[in-house]
Amino acid sequence: MADVSAALVKQLRERTGAGMMDCKKALADTEGDIEAAVDWLRQKGLSQAAKKAGRTAADGLIGVHTAGTSGAIVEVNAETDFVARNETFQDFVGKVTELALSAGGDLETLKQTIYPETGRTVEEELTQTIATIGENMKLSRSAALSVDRGAVSAYVHNQLAPNLGKIGVLVALEADVESEKLEGLAKQLAMHVAAAQPNAVSQADIDPAVVERERRVLEQQARDSGKPENIIEKMVEGRLRKFYEEIALLDQLFVVDGESRVRDVIKKASDDLGTEVKVAGFVRFSLGEGAESESEEESAASA
Protein backbone atom coordinates (compact mmCIF):
# COMPACT_ATOMS: atom_id res chain seq x y z
CA MET A 1 0.00 0.00 0.00
CA ALA A 2 1.27 3.47 -0.93
CA ASP A 3 2.17 5.94 1.80
CA VAL A 4 -0.70 8.43 1.54
CA SER A 5 0.18 11.90 2.82
CA ALA A 6 -2.31 14.27 4.40
CA ALA A 7 -1.46 16.84 1.71
CA LEU A 8 -2.39 14.39 -1.04
CA VAL A 9 -5.67 13.54 0.69
CA LYS A 10 -6.44 17.25 1.05
CA GLN A 11 -5.71 17.86 -2.63
CA LEU A 12 -7.99 15.00 -3.69
CA ARG A 13 -10.78 16.20 -1.40
CA GLU A 14 -10.56 19.71 -2.86
CA ARG A 15 -10.73 18.36 -6.40
CA THR A 16 -13.56 15.89 -5.89
CA GLY A 17 -15.55 16.89 -2.83
CA ALA A 18 -15.39 13.28 -1.60
CA GLY A 19 -15.02 12.34 2.08
CA MET A 20 -11.67 11.97 3.79
CA MET A 21 -11.82 8.19 4.24
CA ASP A 22 -12.96 7.67 0.64
CA CYS A 23 -10.05 9.81 -0.57
CA LYS A 24 -7.59 7.84 1.58
CA LYS A 25 -8.88 4.52 0.21
CA ALA A 26 -8.81 5.81 -3.37
CA LEU A 27 -5.19 6.94 -3.03
CA ALA A 28 -4.18 3.72 -1.29
CA ASP A 29 -5.77 1.58 -4.01
CA THR A 30 -4.12 3.61 -6.78
CA GLU A 31 -0.64 3.74 -5.21
CA GLY A 32 -0.91 7.49 -4.59
CA ASP A 33 -1.70 8.38 -8.23
CA ILE A 34 -4.07 11.32 -7.83
CA GLU A 35 -5.46 11.20 -11.40
CA ALA A 36 -6.19 7.49 -11.04
CA ALA A 37 -7.74 8.22 -7.63
CA VAL A 38 -10.09 10.76 -9.22
CA ASP A 39 -11.23 8.07 -11.67
CA TRP A 40 -11.54 5.53 -8.83
CA LEU A 41 -13.88 7.87 -6.93
CA ARG A 42 -15.93 8.59 -10.05
CA GLN A 43 -16.31 4.88 -10.76
CA LYS A 44 -17.64 4.42 -7.23
CA GLY A 45 -20.02 7.34 -7.64
CA LEU A 46 -18.24 9.28 -4.91
CA SER A 47 -17.03 12.25 -6.93
CA GLN A 48 -18.43 15.11 -8.94
CA ALA A 49 -14.96 16.13 -10.12
CA ALA A 50 -15.88 16.37 -13.78
CA LYS A 51 -18.62 18.89 -13.07
CA LYS A 52 -17.13 20.74 -10.13
CA ALA A 53 -17.08 24.48 -10.77
CA GLY A 54 -15.95 27.64 -9.10
CA ARG A 55 -12.40 26.56 -8.23
CA THR A 56 -11.24 30.17 -8.33
CA ALA A 57 -8.16 30.83 -6.24
CA ALA A 58 -7.62 34.58 -6.65
CA ASP A 59 -9.33 37.89 -7.25
CA GLY A 60 -8.61 40.50 -9.91
CA LEU A 61 -9.98 41.07 -13.40
CA ILE A 62 -10.31 39.49 -16.82
CA GLY A 63 -9.90 42.01 -19.65
CA VAL A 64 -11.00 41.66 -23.29
CA HIS A 65 -10.27 43.81 -26.33
CA THR A 66 -11.22 43.44 -30.00
CA ALA A 67 -10.14 45.34 -33.09
CA GLY A 68 -11.50 44.31 -36.47
CA THR A 69 -10.93 40.59 -36.93
CA SER A 70 -8.60 40.21 -33.94
CA GLY A 71 -9.08 40.04 -30.20
CA ALA A 72 -7.09 39.58 -27.00
CA ILE A 73 -7.85 38.52 -23.44
CA VAL A 74 -5.79 38.73 -20.23
CA GLU A 75 -6.07 37.80 -16.57
CA VAL A 76 -4.49 40.01 -13.92
CA ASN A 77 -4.83 38.74 -10.36
CA ALA A 78 -4.98 40.74 -7.15
CA GLU A 79 -5.56 39.74 -3.55
CA THR A 80 -8.99 41.32 -3.02
CA ASP A 81 -12.15 42.39 -4.81
CA PHE A 82 -11.53 45.85 -3.35
CA VAL A 83 -8.53 46.27 -5.67
CA ALA A 84 -10.49 44.89 -8.63
CA ARG A 85 -12.82 47.87 -8.20
CA ASN A 86 -9.93 50.34 -7.97
CA GLU A 87 -9.79 52.71 -10.99
CA THR A 88 -5.98 52.62 -11.15
CA PHE A 89 -6.02 48.82 -11.32
CA GLN A 90 -8.84 48.80 -13.89
CA ASP A 91 -6.97 51.30 -16.06
CA PHE A 92 -3.84 49.13 -15.90
CA VAL A 93 -5.72 45.96 -16.89
CA GLY A 94 -7.52 47.76 -19.72
CA LYS A 95 -4.29 49.08 -21.24
CA VAL A 96 -2.49 45.77 -20.82
CA THR A 97 -5.35 44.00 -22.61
CA GLU A 98 -4.98 46.33 -25.58
CA LEU A 99 -1.23 45.71 -25.63
CA ALA A 100 -1.86 41.95 -25.58
CA LEU A 101 -3.31 42.26 -29.07
CA SER A 102 -0.01 43.58 -30.49
CA ALA A 103 1.83 40.87 -28.51
CA GLY A 104 -0.26 38.20 -30.22
CA GLY A 105 -1.47 36.97 -26.85
CA ASP A 106 1.99 35.70 -25.87
CA LEU A 107 2.47 36.30 -22.14
CA GLU A 108 6.26 36.73 -22.10
CA THR A 109 6.15 39.09 -25.08
CA LEU A 110 3.41 41.07 -23.37
CA LYS A 111 5.45 41.43 -20.17
CA GLN A 112 8.30 43.02 -22.16
CA THR A 113 6.04 45.28 -24.25
CA ILE A 114 6.46 49.01 -23.60
CA TYR A 115 3.62 50.45 -21.53
CA PRO A 116 2.15 53.69 -22.94
CA GLU A 117 2.87 56.99 -21.20
CA THR A 118 5.65 55.74 -18.89
CA GLY A 119 8.13 54.02 -21.21
CA ARG A 120 8.44 51.14 -18.76
CA THR A 121 7.79 47.54 -19.73
CA VAL A 122 4.43 46.05 -18.75
CA GLU A 123 6.23 43.96 -16.13
CA GLU A 124 7.88 47.07 -14.65
CA GLU A 125 4.58 48.95 -14.74
CA LEU A 126 2.95 46.10 -12.84
CA THR A 127 5.60 46.45 -10.13
CA GLN A 128 4.91 50.19 -9.98
CA THR A 129 1.15 49.56 -9.72
CA ILE A 130 1.75 47.12 -6.86
CA ALA A 131 3.75 49.81 -5.04
CA THR A 132 1.04 52.41 -5.67
CA ILE A 133 -1.93 50.31 -4.57
CA GLY A 134 -0.12 48.31 -1.90
CA GLU A 135 -1.41 44.87 -2.80
CA ASN A 136 0.27 41.98 -4.60
CA MET A 137 -0.76 41.45 -8.23
CA LYS A 138 0.15 39.07 -11.02
CA LEU A 139 -0.25 39.08 -14.79
CA SER A 140 -1.25 35.41 -15.00
CA ARG A 141 -2.08 34.68 -18.63
CA SER A 142 -3.05 36.10 -22.00
CA ALA A 143 -4.32 34.84 -25.34
CA ALA A 144 -5.38 36.20 -28.72
CA LEU A 145 -7.49 35.12 -31.70
CA SER A 146 -7.57 36.44 -35.26
CA VAL A 147 -9.01 35.53 -38.66
CA ASP A 148 -8.29 36.85 -42.15
CA ARG A 149 -11.99 37.37 -42.86
CA GLY A 150 -14.96 36.96 -40.58
CA ALA A 151 -15.57 38.26 -37.08
CA VAL A 152 -14.00 38.19 -33.63
CA SER A 153 -16.21 39.12 -30.71
CA ALA A 154 -15.80 39.31 -26.95
CA TYR A 155 -18.09 39.01 -23.96
CA VAL A 156 -17.54 39.79 -20.29
CA HIS A 157 -19.68 38.35 -17.50
CA ASN A 158 -19.98 40.06 -14.09
CA GLN A 159 -18.67 43.25 -15.68
CA LEU A 160 -17.13 45.75 -13.25
CA ALA A 161 -16.09 48.25 -15.94
CA PRO A 162 -16.25 48.27 -19.77
CA ASN A 163 -14.58 45.07 -21.07
CA LEU A 164 -13.46 44.09 -17.55
CA GLY A 165 -15.05 41.42 -15.35
CA LYS A 166 -14.85 38.02 -13.71
CA ILE A 167 -15.33 35.86 -16.84
CA GLY A 168 -14.13 36.81 -20.32
CA VAL A 169 -14.61 35.11 -23.68
CA LEU A 170 -13.29 35.55 -27.22
CA VAL A 171 -14.91 33.83 -30.20
CA ALA A 172 -13.54 33.88 -33.76
CA LEU A 173 -15.69 33.03 -36.79
CA GLU A 174 -14.24 32.48 -40.26
CA ALA A 175 -16.39 33.47 -43.23
CA ASP A 176 -15.82 35.04 -46.63
CA VAL A 177 -17.90 38.00 -45.54
CA GLU A 178 -17.93 40.68 -42.87
CA SER A 179 -21.38 41.74 -41.69
CA GLU A 180 -23.33 42.89 -38.66
CA LYS A 181 -25.18 39.57 -38.67
CA LEU A 182 -21.91 37.63 -38.42
CA GLU A 183 -20.68 39.91 -35.64
CA GLY A 184 -23.98 39.42 -33.83
CA LEU A 185 -23.63 35.65 -34.06
CA ALA A 186 -20.06 35.84 -32.74
CA LYS A 187 -21.30 37.90 -29.77
CA GLN A 188 -24.08 35.38 -29.05
CA LEU A 189 -21.60 32.51 -29.22
CA ALA A 190 -19.29 34.34 -26.83
CA MET A 191 -22.20 34.62 -24.37
CA HIS A 192 -22.91 30.92 -24.92
CA VAL A 193 -19.30 29.93 -24.21
CA ALA A 194 -19.33 31.96 -20.99
CA ALA A 195 -22.39 30.03 -19.77
CA ALA A 196 -21.88 26.54 -21.25
CA GLN A 197 -18.10 26.27 -20.69
CA PRO A 198 -17.15 24.02 -23.63
CA ASN A 199 -13.65 22.53 -23.69
CA ALA A 200 -13.28 22.18 -27.47
CA VAL A 201 -14.91 23.34 -30.70
CA SER A 202 -15.81 19.84 -31.92
CA GLN A 203 -15.49 16.18 -30.94
CA ALA A 204 -12.42 15.92 -33.18
CA ASP A 205 -10.67 18.61 -31.12
CA ILE A 206 -11.00 16.73 -27.83
CA ASP A 207 -7.81 14.99 -26.68
CA PRO A 208 -8.23 11.26 -27.50
CA ALA A 209 -6.68 10.43 -24.11
CA VAL A 210 -9.48 12.38 -22.40
CA VAL A 211 -12.12 10.49 -24.39
CA GLU A 212 -10.49 7.13 -23.63
CA ARG A 213 -10.29 7.96 -19.95
CA GLU A 214 -13.97 8.92 -19.90
CA ARG A 215 -14.88 5.72 -21.75
CA ARG A 216 -13.05 3.58 -19.16
CA VAL A 217 -14.88 5.30 -16.31
CA LEU A 218 -18.25 4.88 -18.03
CA GLU A 219 -17.57 1.22 -18.81
CA GLN A 220 -16.73 0.50 -15.19
CA GLN A 221 -19.84 2.33 -13.99
CA ALA A 222 -21.99 0.34 -16.44
CA ARG A 223 -20.42 -3.00 -15.42
CA ASP A 224 -21.03 -2.21 -11.76
CA SER A 225 -24.74 -1.97 -12.60
CA GLY A 226 -24.74 -5.70 -13.44
CA LYS A 227 -26.19 -5.26 -16.93
CA PRO A 228 -25.36 -7.68 -19.83
CA GLU A 229 -22.38 -6.82 -22.06
CA ASN A 230 -24.52 -5.79 -25.06
CA ILE A 231 -26.50 -3.41 -22.85
CA ILE A 232 -23.29 -2.06 -21.32
CA GLU A 233 -22.01 -1.09 -24.78
CA LYS A 234 -25.21 0.84 -25.54
CA MET A 235 -25.10 2.53 -22.14
CA VAL A 236 -21.51 3.64 -22.68
CA GLU A 237 -22.20 5.02 -26.17
CA GLY A 238 -25.24 6.91 -24.90
CA ARG A 239 -23.30 8.42 -22.03
CA LEU A 240 -20.41 9.31 -24.33
CA ARG A 241 -22.84 11.24 -26.54
CA LYS A 242 -23.94 13.16 -23.46
CA PHE A 243 -20.27 13.74 -22.60
CA TYR A 244 -19.68 15.25 -26.06
CA GLU A 245 -22.81 17.39 -25.72
CA GLU A 246 -21.42 18.79 -22.48
CA ILE A 247 -17.91 19.73 -23.64
CA ALA A 248 -17.88 20.08 -27.48
CA LEU A 249 -19.17 23.52 -28.51
CA LEU A 250 -20.81 22.39 -31.76
CA ASP A 251 -22.70 19.61 -29.96
CA GLN A 252 -23.99 21.83 -27.16
CA LEU A 253 -27.53 23.15 -26.86
CA PHE A 254 -27.44 26.85 -27.81
CA VAL A 255 -28.16 28.75 -24.59
CA VAL A 256 -29.64 31.73 -26.44
CA ASP A 257 -32.69 29.81 -27.69
CA GLY A 258 -32.44 26.65 -25.57
CA GLU A 259 -33.55 24.49 -28.51
CA SER A 260 -30.96 24.34 -31.31
CA ARG A 261 -27.57 22.70 -31.35
CA VAL A 262 -24.74 25.16 -31.97
CA ARG A 263 -23.79 23.32 -35.19
CA ASP A 264 -27.33 23.94 -36.51
CA VAL A 265 -27.10 27.63 -35.60
CA ILE A 266 -23.82 27.85 -37.54
CA LYS A 267 -25.37 26.06 -40.54
CA LYS A 268 -28.35 28.42 -40.59
CA ALA A 269 -26.01 31.41 -40.49
CA SER A 270 -24.06 29.94 -43.41
CA ASP A 271 -27.28 29.54 -45.41
CA ASP A 272 -28.46 33.07 -44.57
CA LEU A 273 -25.11 34.67 -45.44
CA GLY A 274 -24.56 32.58 -48.55
CA THR A 275 -21.10 31.48 -47.44
CA GLU A 276 -19.68 28.89 -45.08
CA VAL A 277 -19.24 30.01 -41.49
CA LYS A 278 -16.74 28.16 -39.29
CA VAL A 279 -15.84 28.50 -35.63
CA ALA A 280 -12.11 29.22 -35.88
CA GLY A 281 -11.66 29.09 -32.12
CA PHE A 282 -12.65 30.40 -28.73
CA VAL A 283 -10.96 31.33 -25.46
CA ARG A 284 -12.68 31.41 -22.07
CA PHE A 285 -10.96 32.81 -18.98
CA SER A 286 -12.60 32.52 -15.57
CA LEU A 287 -11.02 34.55 -12.80
CA GLY A 288 -8.62 32.55 -10.66
CA GLU A 289 -7.92 29.73 -13.12
CA GLY A 290 -4.63 31.28 -14.21
CA ALA A 291 -3.36 31.65 -10.66
CA GLU A 292 -4.65 28.18 -9.80
CA SER A 293 -2.86 26.42 -12.68
CA GLU A 294 0.40 28.19 -11.79
CA SER A 295 -0.02 27.08 -8.18
CA GLU A 296 -0.52 23.47 -9.29
CA GLU A 297 2.59 23.65 -11.49
CA GLU A 298 4.63 25.02 -8.58
CA SER A 299 3.34 22.24 -6.31
CA ALA A 300 4.29 19.62 -8.90
CA ALA A 301 7.75 21.14 -9.32
CA SER A 302 8.41 21.07 -5.57
CA ALA A 303 7.07 17.53 -5.09
3D architecture notes:
By secondary structure, the protein is an alpha+beta fold. It has 12 helices and 7 strands. It has 3 domains: 6-51, Orthogonal Bundle (Helicase, Ruva Protein, domain 3), CATH 1.10.8.10; 59-202 and 250-297, Elongation factor Ts, dimerisation domain (Tetrahydropterin Synthase, Chain A, 2-Layer Sandwich), CATH 3.30.479; 207-247, Orthogonal Bundle (GTP Cyclohydrolase I, Chain A, domain 1), CATH 1.10.286. A 4-stranded antiparallel sheet has the order 3-2-1-5, with helices on both faces. It has a 3-stranded antiparallel sheet with strand order 4-6-7, covered by helices on one side. InterPro entries: EF-Ts_dimer_sf, Transl_elong_EFTs/EF1B, Transl_elong_EFTs/EF1B_dimer, Transl_elong_Ts_CS, UBA-like_sf. Associates with the EF-Tu.GDP complex and induces the exchange of GDP to GTP. It remains bound to the aminoacyl-tRNA.EF-Tu.GTP complex up to the GTP hydrolysis stage on the ribosome. Belongs to the EF-Ts family.
